[in-house]
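Anyone? Bumping this.
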Amino acid sequence: MKPQSTFEREPARRVFASELRETRYQFKDGEDEKSPTYVILPTGIRSNRIFIVGTLTEKQRQGDQNIFYRGRVVDPTGTFFIMAGSYQPEAMQQLARIEPPAFVAVVGKPNLYTTPDGNCLVSVRVESISVVDRETRDLWVLDTARETLDRLDAFGTTEDSRKAQEEYGTQPDLYRKIVYDALSQVQL
Amino acid sequence: MTLSEVTERISRKLEAKGAQPDRQKIESRLRRLVEEFGVNIDEAERTVTADLAREYNVTGVGSSSSELRPIREIAPGEWVTIEGKIVALTPPLSPSIAQTGIIADSSGAIRFVTWARGNPPAMEYGHWYRLESAVVDEYRGAPNLKIHSGTTISRMDEDAPLLPSITPIAELKPGVGSVRAKFIQEWEASHDRMLQTGLLGDETGTIKFVIWKEEGKDKLELDTVYNIYYATVDEYNGRLSLALNTAMYIPDEGDIEVGRAETEIRGALVHIAPGSGLIKRCPVEGCNRTLSRQNYCPVHEIQPEFRYDLRLKGVLDDGVRAHNVLMQREVVEALTGITLDEAVGIAETNPLGMDEIFYRIRNTVLGRYYTCSGNEFDGRLLVNSCTPIVFEPAELAALLNRAGGEPA
């Protein structure tokens, strides 16, 4: 839809692990092969890129021919599953070098997978990962809390949030509680 | 608006012309029109004013189009009468236009166009004219005065000194503007017809300017303060610029501390783009382009005598928008704690060479929160200062209240 000359990079949405885990709905904006793929987050916004900061607790190298790395990044609400393969060589090398446990900042694309037994999994394909400190983690919790509350305040007024309501039957109070609990774990 | 207010206004207008109207008579006429005949109050005012003007035999009051108006107050859609001095004449762009230029009074200035149809008398630069029944409309977002066949143009003997009122750069609007500004940056002319282009600044902000090639037009001198009278303010893609061809520019004494109308963005650095870190620049005067690894300049070819520079191109993301940012050497040095000299030393002794600097900078700043302030230009923030965001317990408390404060 948008003309090429006004290309704008997709912003990286801030989302807690427990919200991303509930994400099930994915769509393509446009018919083109290169049209971006979005997920609709339960609090009501489309996203094709996210920014997370948490603790890398585990990483695993997998595959023989096509090496890739998987990892777990934990925030106050749950766990993100991240992966970096040979299509993201920079990200894979960055991840290979980090020894858990470590605070990491991850920029990546959310992806939905369905397992053979029918479960839906959300993983994050890493674009970049870097080691950060505890303060950055705390700032991220505040930032993500604020963005999530902003989305909840606008819930029902935007097209994306009506779609979320339809797909997930989102209960805003539940997510307020998640935000509150996440904030409570930040030490003063 | 009450009848007595309108009465007051009408009698003042007439008194200003030397008549002594009877206020009671004005009010009773108004009342009769409004209350007995159901005329709306604006129309009643116009009618009564016109009637009385005729009775007292005064002109210049009455219907709004013949009432003299200050140029600053006229708005698109109005028929107006103004008196002003021709302060600029520009070559007409089309044969159907007789004259274009700028007419000014002490309150302001407006661009005008005179249509060739109707054979209007030519107005002369520097003289005062009275224009009756001209139409104001909008052309490219700026008010424009149309002088058509129904407009009466009369030359006035008056030659009152005219001192244009200076507008702060931050408050300029499309149309005509006079500024007192310093020429702070000269840019390469991007067009054959361009005499000079660059950046002007005053205490409130900066604006791009252009002088097109034309006989008698001189260039500005860098770092000099100018009084620029009656420049044309254009808008393109939401950004204003000044064309000085209609303007008179006179160097002024003194200096200006140029204010930067800065944009501030808080967010996380989510991407460090290739081309960040230690780079080589073309040494040819005025070129400054980035050289490739083989010291190749796209214009001046191989340049072994390059000079080093540090910069950071990246994306600062606030969760709603991804902003491109560009940091120059000083900002990068302060942010990463690596000076240019140290970076050159590291690059020359490290097996990874210049890449080592890219990795060090990336590992220091990627994924962290910063407040960047600077000037936005072409969709990119040129960062003047970049500071890490620190954790504020008060913000945590406020967010806890916000999350828990609403009824569950």
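Late reply, but here is one note on the structure posted above: The CA atoms of residues 332 and 338 of chain B lie 8 Å apart.
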